Please model this.
Amino acid sequence: GNSVTQMEGPVTLSEEAFLTINCTYTATGYPSLFWYVQYPGEGLQLLLKATKADDKGSNKGFEATYRKETTSFHLEKGSVQVSDSAVYFCALSGGADGLTFGKGTHLIIQP
Amino acid sequence: NAGVTQTPKFQVLKTGQSMTLQCAQDMNHNSMYWYRQDPGMGLRLIYYSASEGTTDKGEVPNGYNVSRLNKREFSLRLESAAPSQTSVYFCASSEWHSNTEAFFGQGTRLTVV
Model:
């Protein structure tokens, strides 16, 4: 079946540091890949997506590239802000039952 | 545009009580889902409805039932609540059941004592 593995954290960085959150997946076929963000007390919001190999999704300074050869979709941002503190979920969608999620990475940005 | 609306936002139940979590979406989506979120476990799928008139079990269906009332509404019922069902519950919807993003409600924080 489908599965997603991501670093769980917490990941603590200083403001303006470079961010990478690793995500790898196992899936049959050609899934779409997503990053969602969850701020405290809220539901999940779509951050970015990629629907085929070599696609790059981007939003709010975050980027991730769909790498089929390494089955990865790592999230990156060049300079993080305190407001980026949240939980980030990697997910894939390829079957009838919707999205398969990783366990989430808690990101803490210190001023 | 309200998106996905869940009620209630918070609920405390005693063991053995029953309740229904309500979910409605106004995006004309075909597919709807119920997830639970627990610390260190990510989101786990309880039940889903790929299209109006169909429902299927997800990863953790035991102790739950669902009803796809119409295209807009998808409810989750706990017939006899147990402490193990203490969790945050999220409803989501998507245009189709595969390869499209899902939109989430704000969640229901349920405590069973």
Q: What stands out?
A: The mean pLDDT of chain B is 94. Residues 20 and 77 of chain B are 4 Å apart (CA to CA).
